[in-house]
Design a protein that fits this description.
405 residues, 2 domains, ten-stranded mixed β-sheet, seven-stranded antiparallel β-sheet, 11 helices, globular
């Protein structure tokens, strides 16, 4: 039978191993973030799971579900937490606003980073989540963190302005309150849905009247609730296969579902990617350059039955003609290299316009491979109304985003 001493020792070992792994991966890059992560244990903030789960580097822990079983809130994976803290670059004495209290774990880390001279406010729309976070923070010695119930899209003006604002829920737009409450030289880190289901954690620095991206990290977050919520249009093609459509898309679901029942074409590009090498901006390139961009998501059973074979575990970039055809990225093993497995990118397409869509995707893959494989785009945000000129302008309800490669 485990004693409290056994649990404490096991937790300490797993905690230390987690931080060592994140250091080895390069996720933790600064001594201050490392110190904060070593100071705050994670398991007291996720008491309903095993210690192994609490300290798994890449696993989020769902902490609240609705009556249908859909996740409403979660504790982000430690790797994502560390990465976003590095993006945020909190300094001692900073005033920090967190949108999405979650379990309180991230707020505790923020409190470590700001130190006794700083102040951390965390806001959540759900009273149960607020109560849980407040209790966990008090129990672990971080009762000085201000935990408030409110709509995160409205921020919390009384404690502003803030040197840093971090959003720990998927955002569709940048609400005016965040602009108003961010200090003139402040930084905003937000998992922003740019086009369709393409989300990046973007660190924006404020430059006078606009925001400029400093870094981007691939991520996935549960969507914001409240006034900042934005439904994500989707089409179920068959059991276990879904298209997440681009914003404003109105593709007829019956026609697309019928396309999946027809014979597919597979065309290979000759373009290789290597395991562990960065190619995370490929889908962002396609999203900002391809008409009818969307994403295909297939459950393991559907992949096993060859109903759909998206390129990556989290799904594949896809395009539709918004009527009766779609195409998406797939991969197959290629000759391995000395530094690891190699895969070839290809296009799988369905429907009467599958050849046209295949050609479109292959052309964009070629452009990415020759010109943008090793580049990260610059994203700027301006609060409307604003006048902008750029190759790609994304019109949000409150914000204009420009994407420049």
């Amino acid at each position: 039978m485990n004693t409290d001493t056994d649990v404490h020792q096991t937790a300490g070992r797993l905690h230390a191993d987690l931080i060592d792994l994140l250091l080895a991966r390069g996720t933790i890059r600064s001594a201050r973030v490392e110190a904060a992560l070593r100071s705050v244990p994670r398991h007291p903030f996720v008491p309903g799971v095993s210690l192994e789960t609490a300290y798994a580097p890449d696993d989020a822990v769902v902490t609240q579900r609705d009556i249908a079983g859909a996740a409403l809130s979660s504790a982000s994976a430690p790797g994502v937490v560390a990465s976003m803290l590095e993006q945020l670059d909190v300094q001692p004495g900073d005033r920090v606003l967190e949108i999405g209290a979650g379990t309180g774990y991230n707020a505790a880390l923020l409190a470590e980073l700001t130190g006794p001279e700083g102040h951390v406010v965390t806001v959540d729309i759900d009273t149960d989540i607020v109560d849980g976070a407040r209790t966990a923070l008090a129990r672990t010695g971080y009762g000085h963190v201000e935990v408030l119930c409110g709509d995160g899209a409205e921020g919390y003006a009384p404690a502003g302005s803030y040197d840093r604002i971090i959003v720990t829920a998927g955002a569709w737009d940048l609400p005016p309150a965040w602009w108003q409450q961010l200090a003139p030289a402040g930084r905003l880190v937000v998992p922003l849905r740019i086009i369709g289901a393409t989300t990046r954690s973007i660190a924006f620095d404020r430059h006078d009247d606009h925001l400029v991206s400093r870094s981007m990290v691939t991520c996935g977050f549960l969507a914001m609730r409240g006034i900042g919520a934005r439904p994500e249009p989707s089409v179920t093609l068959t059991e276990g296969v879904t298209l997440l459509l681009g914003d404003g898309s109105t593709a007829p679901p019956n026609a697309l579902a019928h396309a999946l029942t027809q014979a597919a074409t597979r065309t290979w590009s000759g373009i290789s990617i290597r395991s562990g090498r960065p190619f995370q901006d490929l889908d962002l390139w396609l999203a900002t350059t391809s008409r009818g961009f969307c994403r295909i998501v297939a459950q393991p059973e559907a992949v096993g039955a060859d109903l759909a074979t998206p390129a990556f575990r989290w799904g594949g970039a896809a395009v539709t003609n918004e009527t009766d055809s779609f195409a998406y990225l797939t991969i197959r093993p290629s000759e391995p290299a000395d530094d690891g497995p190699v895969f070839e990118l290809g296009v799988r397409a369905h429907g009467p316009r599958r050849h046209d869509l295949t050609t479109t995707l292959l052309e964009q893959l070629g452009h990415w491979d020759t010109k943008h494989r090793d580049t990260t785009p610059r994203i700027e945000a301006r609060l409307k109304p604003s006048q902008v000129t750029a190759t790609t302008v994304i019109d949000k309800p409150h914000t204009l985003l420009t994407v420049t490669w």
